[in-house]
Amino acid sequence: DLRLLWPLDVGAPGPRQWVLSNLSKGMVDKARIVADAEMAPETDLAFRSPAITGSVSFSGVTARYWHPLPPFEDIGGKAVFDSQSFRLTLSGGKYRDIAVAGATVDFLGLDRETPPSRLAADVGFEGPLSHILEVLDREPLGYARYLGMDPAVPGGDAAFRLRVGMPLLASLALGDVALEAEGDVVNAHLPVAALKMNLEDARIDVKADKKHFAVSGGGLLGGQPATFDFEQRFSGNDPVEAIYRLRTIFDDDGQARLGIRLAPYVSGPVEIDLIATENRDDTTELKLKAGLGATEIQLERLRWTKAAGEPAWLEASVRTRPDGLLEASSIAAAGPGLEFVGRGLFDIAGARLLEGSLDRLRIGERTDLAVRVEPRPDGTVSIGAKGPSVDLSPFLDRAGGERAGQGGVDRLNIRLDADRAWLGGNAPLHGFAAGIGLEGERISEAAANARTANGRAVSLSLQPGGDKAALRIDADDTGALLSALGWYDNMRGGLLRLTAESSASAEEDYRGSLVIKRFRIRDAPVLTRLLAAASLTGIGDALSSDAGLQFERLETPFSIRSDRIRLGPGRTFGNSIGVTFRGEFDRDRETVALNGVLVPVYYVSRVLRKIPLIGDLLTGGGEGLFAANYEMTGPADDPKTKVNPLSVLAPGFLRGLFGPLLGAEGRDWDPDEDPVGSPDQ
User: Fold this and answer.
1) DSSP type of residue 236
2) Can you tell me whether residue 650 is helix, strand or coil?
3) Could you tell me which of 122, 78, 61, 72 has the C-alpha nearest to residue 99?
4) What is the 3-state secondary structure (H, E, C) of 170-201?
5) How distant, in Å, are the alpha carbons of 46, 55, 80, 87, 651 from that of 109?
6) Residue 324 to residues 242, 244, 288, 342, 343: CA-CA distances in angstroms?
7) Burial of 432 by CB count in 10 Å (0-12 exposed, 13-18 middle, 19+ buried)?
8) How many angstroms separate the CA atoms of 216 and 223, rounded?
9) By three-state DSSP, how is residue 43 classified?
10) Scanning 80, 329, 375, 663, which has the fewest C-beta atoms within 10 Å of its C-beta?
11) Averaged pLDDT, 312-318
12) 270, 295 contact by CB (below 8 A)
């Protein structure tokens, strides 16, 4: 019994009190004490300084190194002491599956009262990570809680050292105690709840004291290599409370676990370097760097793609504010033919954008804009875009897919001003200014003005009216407009007017009429082939000349549906030929199905000059009059043609088709009239 073997008046009281309070059971195997003292019969025993030195060896002891820690059993060791210090060197011992990997307990300054004597303990532990975390999570440590984990869940083998220093006072506050802990874990596996993944085969280094708690290491996160750092700062004077850093790769499976749905636009691994800083002013700062070199990206709507292996990156700096808003001070990305730099402000609770801008948006060689987004209180979102150039062809080409939704926006107003606007052809429109209003996925109103490459005016307007909308397009050079759209390169000149109304039918978008005046057609292979099939080679030769084939007028009704355009019955005529047409263009298959009548004008002139003698001619007598029915079917760029000659034409049909050109009087053209006529005509 140490209480009997260690008298109260022998040695300093601190070591005796600690030893009696924290060591129990066991055996003293060997003890050696050297006393230097004077003894006189008339006086008590008086020790000289240094008075006592010695050592004690023991085994089978149960020890509690520091009160928050559990007791460790079966400890052996040795105590060495003198009048100034007392040192315990301990070995062996265990708590559950945790083994003591060497420990020392020092009592220093035992020969003084001010400053008070101190205790310094240095204890090593080895064992399962879950059991050591359980020990280190006891009050007032709570280290596992700072990691946001249940101490019982993680696996792995750990080795830690805990250092404690404190004055030997009767009453202690936590501020009087110095704490340090450090260690490493191997073969660790633990869940990472925030990422919905497991960390496997990890090595983790831990350092902690009263000012901070830090963890760093690396392993496999969701099967991908990862490194990580975490630091919790305890000082209330530090503006930063915690810092997290994660560097890893999120493949398609990892993205799916996080609830990130990037398909079909992005596929493949994304390299992530994320730093999150939690501040004491209730703000959080995030800095993200994403390496996209191994990623395949397909933004068909913008006609931008990136193959795996091409360098690309994205960076973002965002901050959560005390008012609940998310402020993105910088969002930037770059890749082959793509660059943007922007910023924004988001309402997290309301899941909506409050304001945003792209200071620069560059896509390919044809889009270079600055964009600003301004949501309004009434739910309308205004987008303003301005810059040297914009490529609108992806939004005009149905091959880009169905019209994209607006992300829950009911009303969207867009204002676009660009020096050059590319619409799909090899030449842009200049001085492009447009305003568009959308409600849901339907264009409610629009206005646009521009100039073709030769300076001719182009304008468009779409004005609402009740449950319909009126569309009008005017162009002073139809050929230049069609070429800018990439639709047709064989027309020169032409004054265009297109008027239409939206249809009340759910299957038709617009119904209207198209008129083009005074234009030429040149180098048109399909028309050349059709004329050759009708044996009108002379007229066909005019198509190949520099001047081309002159037409005075084209007019037709039309209707536009989501999948097809219907034309006709329509007509076009010039100094050489007249053509009627009726049919449709399939927008999905890009095929045509047209039919009509071809009539050379020089025959018509002879007929109209001989109206009093027309009977014999129209009934097959005399030399007859040549004309032909035609059909065109198949791919729009290479349709099959079929021609059947006609020998008789009705005069009413001719007057209707060519009357405006030749000045003939008579009733209006009836496009449904049989060109051959009837016996009583």
Assistant:
1) T
2) coil
3) 72
4) CCCCHHHCEEEEEEEEEEEEEEEHHHCEEEEE
5) 21, 18, 15, 12, 130
6) 19, 21, 20, 21, 17
7) buried
8) 18
9) coil
10) 663
11) 96
12) yes
Residue by residue, DSSP assigns 516-532 as: EEEEEE-S-HHHHHHHH
Name the strand (E) or helix (H) holding 16.
helix 13-22
The single residue listed with the structure tokens 């009583």 is: 680
Facing residues of 577 across strands? 600
- Report in angstroms the alpha-carbon separations of 392 from 347, 382, 565, 575: 31, 18, 21, 37
Please give the helix or strand (H or E) that residue 605 lies within, else none. Answer: helix 601-609
Rounded to whole angstroms, the Cα distance separating 128 from 393 reads 63
**Cα–Cα distance, 677 to 262 (Å, whole number):** 64
Q: How far is CA 336 from the centre of its chain?
A: 17
Q: Which residue has the tokens 């198949």?
A: 634
Contact criterion met (CB below 8 Å) for 352 and 345: no
Round to whole Å and give the CA distance between 504 and 577: 37
Quickly tell me which residue has 């989501």 as its tokens: 562
What are the beta bridge partners of residue 284? Answer: 278, 320
Helix (H) or strand (E) holding 13: helix 13-22
Per residue in 98-138, pLDDT tens? 888 888 988 888 777 677 788 898 988 898 888 877 877 77
Q: Do 86 and 12 contact (CB within 8 A), yes or no?
A: yes
Beta pairing, strands 380-391 & 411-422: parallel
Task: Kindly state the tokens that stand for 256.
Answer: 């799916």
Question: What is the CA angle 310-313-314, rounded to 5?
Answer: 150
pLDDT digits (tens, 9 = 90+) for 415-426: 999 999 999 998
Q: How far is CA 228 from CA 192, 232, 254, in A?
A: 12, 14, 17
Instruction: Residue 295: count other Cβ atoms within 10 Å of its Cβ.
Output: 23
The pLDDT, as a whole number, for residue 147 is: 62
Question: What mean pLDDT is predicted for residues 183-202?
Answer: 85
| Rg for the chain, CA atoms, rounded | 46
Amino acid identity of residue 423, one-letter, is L
For 449, other C-beta atoms within 10 Å of its C-beta total 16
Closest among 139, 179, 177, 183 to 161, alpha carbons compared: 183
Instruction: List pLDDT tens digits, range 430-477.
Output: 999 999 998 877 778 899 999 999 999 999 999 887 778 899 999 999
Q: How many CA atoms, within 13 angstroms, populate the side-chain half-sphere of residue 12?
A: 25
pLDDT tens digit sequence for 601-631: 644 544 444 444 444 443 333 333 457 788 9
The 10 Å CB-count burial string (b at 16+, else e) for 389-398 is bbbbbbeeee
In whole angstroms, what separates CA 135 from the centre of its chain?
A: 43
- Distance from C-alpha of 369 to C-alpha of 366, rounded to nearest angstrom: 10
- Specify the pairing of strand 118-128 against strand 155-167: antiparallel
Residues 280/254, Cβ–Cβ less than 8 Å: no
The whole-angstrom separation of Cα 620 and Cα 627 is 13
Which pair of structure tokens corresponds to residue 437? 């209003």
Residue 183 φ then ψ, to 5°? 180, 180
Token representation of residue 144: 């596992």
Residue found under tokens 């993200």: 288
657: tokens are 């088709």
